[in-house]
Amino acid sequence: MASLEVILKKDVTGVGEEGDIKNVKAGFARNFLFPRGFAVPKTKVNQIILEKERAAIEKRKEEKRQLSKDVVEKLQNVEVKFKSPAAENDKLFGSITNANISQALAEMGYDIDKRKIELEHHIKVLGTYDVKIKLYEGVHATIKVIVEKE
Q1: Which of 21, 36, 66 is the last residue of a domain?
Q2: How far is 81 from 25, CA to CA, in rounded Å?
């Protein structure tokens, strides 16, 4: 597989942050990153442009990090409760997913993308769970998700 070095122009989940130089598969760069304006090829000209913009990029990163820390403080004692039908052995007839949690948080006034909610597996049993939310690089929040019998 051919790879290509790119300079990220925007944060891309799972790849990196704005200003990072990353090695990605050529097809991913050509078909996804470049057409959407998320990245440019790593060339001498683009590196010079990046260095000129470095201070502004670092300032934006710091602002995002600070906003994320503010959200962590707000989420500190948040509990998300779900009532779901369950069998006698406390197994749910469905499951609670990161999309369900994101929607419940949105109803509480928190705008958290479902991709930032880190669930190893969907919740399929009644109980209380600590769920980690990755808000920004190195900034995480943990909320309680309580699943009760309907």
Answers
A1: 66
A2: 41
Among 130, 134, 113, residue whose Cα is nearest residue 79 = 130
Number of structural domains, the chain?
Answer: 2
Q: Last residue of some domain: 35, 66, 97?
A: 66
Query: What are the tens digits of pLDDT across the range 48-87?
Result: 999 999 999 999 888 988 888 888 888 888 899 999 999 8
Cα dist. 110→65, 114, 118, 129, 135 in Å?
A: 17, 12, 16, 19, 12
Please give the DSSP secondary-structure letter assigned to residue 32. I
Residue 1 has a pLDDT of: 63
pTM over 0.85: no
